[in-house]
Amino acid sequence: MFRTKRRWDNTGRRIVIPIINTILDQFWVDARLFLEESGYRIPPKFNPDWKPTNEAERRQAISRLPRPFLISAVRLKDNVPVILKSVEIDSPEFEISVLFSSPPLSLDPRNHCIPVYEVLKFGSHAILVLPILRLFWDPPFDTIDALLGRSVYAPTFRRSPMYPKGYIPERPYMKVDCNGHVSPSCTRTARWPRYYLIDFGHARRYDPADGIPSEPILRGADRTAPEHSKPVAPFESNPFPTDIYYLGDMLREYFLDVDMVKENPSERPTIDGVVIRFDKLVKSRSFWCLQAVTQSGNQPYSFPFTYFARRLKFALRFKSPLPKIATNPTRVLTAPHEFYSASRQRVAEMPGELAT
């Protein structure tokens, strides 16, 4: 079942790329028939009897999503492409994913957590059925309004309506039929996408009655938090200020960077404060400021003819530069401020004791 594709590198040596990894992909091989019975078709490469018949099939079979617990699939009842994610049933990630996808939180318009369409139980794991999303910066933002429209909410957005014909999840730059590169059918301002927060692998649920939360430090992709990089860093700390730092670090080049990335975790604002201040910032911008074109720092200047054509079209149609928000942001945190900012840190005795 270890099928491969062969390539040649620049030195003439043969490179063998596996289509199926017998360790990482075994879960999906075992779950294939169960998923078909549950109404989902996964890529044919997970069928032990399948063999690619041409180069296009081989190329597609080698492509994979960033993590082995994620695969693409098609929901058979309506032929809708989805993403399947395997998580352990007794994990906090499963609990929190289902929590935000269940009433009353799923009915709250402020909820930007990725929705779970269905939960399939397979052995000790749950298979979450999720929508297909794109990274928030793809395609690039073309105006300030498009940038402000998503900045404090989410790292990914749903493919429709900017990509109504879809794309290959494993190769988001390719059309579904592999015949050329995909491009958005419209701008974000023309048809606003909805953005989502994803991946609750390190998420935890806390009760203010239990006191200030404290968790062992887990270093993710962003390892620049000051409280994690001191000569003698704490073994445990309050995770809320670190979350604010990570969000602020992502926004560092744009706004709100001063307070959100302060070295002292207790001096950072809560998420309530961030959202309310951000809302005031957006409302203080003029129409023409929101319509201004963005430009990368290393990108040579060129006169944006298409940009001005779009702006004229939106002006004639009285198109708002930002999506309509039903209500102003309200405070949702119920615990005292200290619960989200104070810390009862436990310092490691030796640097080698730090959690990784």
What secondary-structure arrangement, pairings included, does this model have?
Blueprint: E1 4-8, E2 14-18, H1 26-37, E3 40-41, H2 55-62, E4 70-75, E5 80-88, H3 92-100, E6 118-122, E7 125-130, E8 133-135, H4 144-148, E9 156-158, E10 195-196, E11 215-216, H5 226-229, E12 234-237, H6 239-250, H7 257-260, H8 271-283, H9 287-290, H10 305-316, H11 337-341, E13 346-347
Antiparallel strand pairs: 1-2, 3-4, 4-5, 5-7, 6-7, 8-9, 9-10, 11-12, 12-13
Protein name: Protein kinase domain-containing protein
Organism: Armillaria gallica (Bulbous honey fungus)
Provide structural commentary.
With 356 residues, the protein is of the alpha+beta class. The protein has eleven helices and 13 strands. The chain has a five-stranded antiparallel sheet with strand order 3-4-5-7-6. Strands 8-9-10 form a three-stranded antiparallel sheet, with no helix packed on it. Strands 11-12-13 form a three-stranded antiparallel sheet, with no helix packed on it. A hairpin with a 4-residue loop joins strand 4 and strand 5. The N terminus and C terminus are likely disordered. This is Protein kinase domain-containing protein. It comes from Armillaria gallica.
